[in-house]
Amino acid sequence: MTSTSVTDLVAGLADGSVEVIDLTQPLSETTPVLVLPDPFANTPHLSRKTLSKFDDNGPAWAWDVLELGEHTGTHLDAPIHWITGKDGEDVASIPPGRLVGPAVVIDKTAEVAADPGYLLTPDDLAAYEAEHGAIAPGSWILFRTGWGSRASAEAAFLNAGPEGPVTPGPDVAAARWLAEHPNVVGFGVETVGIDAGAAGGFDPGFPVHNFLLGAGRYGLTQLANLEALPAAGALIVVAPLKLVDGTGSPSRVLAFVPR
Ligand code: MN
């Protein structure tokens, strides 16, 4: 990028021809979290304890202590989250340039409305490239499903049925496609995890975690406002905590969208 490009971006932000969209869900005590079946350990919801609130413990200041999982709310999955990526990057080691890139938005909202367990296929990904052009280097693939509209109601968001959670995600072949595409840096979803709800029963289990994190790429969950993005042409900024040895981190995720 030339200095002119940055100047143009700054001017676009000032005159409204570039809009900033917040792709982050609100983080609070009621933010939904993943639920694993027995015997696996589960992550806590966010909770907080007051250190002071304009009282004897701090007469002029208010501050809290948080407890939350690395994988709570809108968050990034680092390669070391999964056994296939355990020798890869922690959150703090991710090169910052990988956290900024083109946003590729694959819209399957209609399909997911008809079938909440809809599985994204390699044909869907190839169809995107046929319509919008080849995926550019450094891209984040964002799976738009409409699921974000459920994000304030945990039961509807997790959508657990008698057979387990019913939520959309890539099939095994699409997970492999994403992990093997040289220009894909990360894969983001509106749901609680980067794999489909049924993916524990796939072969291999949780194929997006398995292939994508194993290939040194990143996951991004619980995104909001994907419907405000064009299919191509937006720029995403992913901002996890620089957490040393972190397997993941709550993240603020923004997009620059030309208007
Ligand atoms: Mn995670």
Describe the structure.
- The protein is of the alpha/beta class.
- It has one domain (21-27, 74-258): Putative cyclase (Glucose Oxidase, domain 1).
- Helices cover 20% and strands 29% of the residues.
- The protein is built from 6 helices and 14 strands.
- The strands form 4 sheets. A 7-stranded mixed beta barrel has the order 4-12-11-7-5-13-14. Strands 2-3 form a two-stranded antiparallel ribbon. Strands 6-10 form a two-stranded parallel sheet.
- Helix 5 packs parallel to helix 6 (207-214).
- The relative contact order is 0.22.
- The mean pLDDT is 97.
- Residues 71, 75, 77, 221, 248 line the site of manganese (II) ion (MN).
Q: Concise description?
A:
By secondary structure, this protein is of the alpha/beta class. The protein has helices at 3-15, 109-114, 122-132, 154-158, 172-180, 207-214; strands spanning 18-22, 47-55, 58-67, 75-77, 100-107, 119-120, 139-144, 160-161, 164-165, 169-170, 184-189, 218-220, 234-240, 248-258.
